[in-house]
Write a structure and sequence with these properties.
Layout lengths: L1 H23 L4 E10 L7 E2 L4 E5 L3 H10 L6 H6 L7 H10 L7 H6 L2 H6 L1 H11 L16 H4 L1 H21 L17 H9 L2 H13 L3 E6 L5 E8 L1 E6 L15 E6 L4 E6 L13
Helix pairs in contact: 2-11
């Protein structure tokens, strides 16, 4: 009987000891307190109220790349090859070499070298149309005559080559003279067709990214209060991303989207301030 009492007491001591150890053991989770504020143009910063935020184990940007990788992209070389015969072989070769099909905008203009402008028939024609008719400028005037092409082809070829060289030097000395030639290329610009081809797959990519974010990579979710504050508790130690996915908050004319990294440490509370400064920056360049 006394042996049973001793065993019982020993068991009780073990249980209480285990409970005491558990109570004194360091916490394995942490917390996140965040506040989201946005500043509209010409205004003061305001809280982002009643807006959902998602804590992800992978940045939404990388989740988007993962979703994009699962769906084959349109083949630009194949797209270029299918352009009809109105596009010169030189223009198609330029597009393939540069992996660029849009013939509009500053990005396109800045890509062009004097060799490109004069070596691609469409570019040369557009450039000459923009510059040769300006009588007030010191643009080179051709000495070659159309009649020489039949009467004296050697002379015609030499004078033509000499003129092209003069124009090349002019472009090198006046790079701004290339500005605006995209206006003369608008009718043959295949860029809009390429963008439409790419755009067909974007809704599916977005749907897949949102699905991955809210299932495979979702750790927690919180909605901001009237002060723009949000709280996440019981988060295991690690690095996460506080994200609005691809949904923009709306504060006046401000439309911030956030995907901000945050590190959680056991027993600690990480504080995050979200503002226009750390909102996602997007790029608009189109090939």
């Amino acid at each position: 009987m006394s042996g049973m009492k001793c065993s019982t007491r020993a068991a009780i001591f073990v249980i209480f000891g285990a409970l005491a150890f558990a109570a004194n053991a360091p916490a394995q989770t942490g917390s996140i307190d965040f506040v989201a504020r946005a500043t509209p143009s010409g205004g003061l910063d305001e809280p982002v109220r009643g807006f959902p935020f998602y804590l992800l184990s992978k940045s939404f940007e990388d989740i988007g790349k993962e979703a994009d990788a699962t769906d084959p992209k349109p083949d630009m070389d194949a797209f270029i090859a299918k352009l009809d015969a109105t596009y010169s072989p030189e223009l198609k070769a330029w597009m393939k070499k540069n992996q660029w099909v849009s013939l509009a905008g500053e990005d396109f203009i800045h890509m062009l070298t004097p060799t490109d402008v004069l070596g691609v028939p469409e570019f040369r024609k557009a450039y000459m149309e923009r510059n040769a008719g300006d009588q007030s400028a010191d643009f080179p005037k051709p000495k070659v005559k159309a009649s020489d092409q039949v009467k004296n082809p050697d002379k015609f070829d030499k004078l033509s080559a000499d003129y092209i060289e003069l124009v090349r030097r002019y472009i090198e000395q006046h790079p701004m003279s290339v500005d605006g030639i995209d206006l003369n290329l608008a009718e043959i610009d295949p860029g809009p067709k390429w963008q439409a081809l790419q755009g067909k797959r974007m809704p599916e990519i977005r749907r897949r990214a949102l699905n991955l974010a809210q299932s495979k990579y979702l750790v927690a979710r919180a909605e901001t209060n009237l002060q723009g504050e949000g709280f996440l508790r019981g988060i295991p130690s690690g690095t996460y991303w506080l994200s609005t996915l691809d949904v923009a908050a709306s504060v006046g004319d401000a439309r911030p989207v956030w995907d901000v990294p945050v590190t959680v440490r056991a027993g600690e509370t990480a504080s995050v301030a979200l503002s226009n400064v750390n909102a996602v920056q997007t790029s608009h360049a189109t090939p």
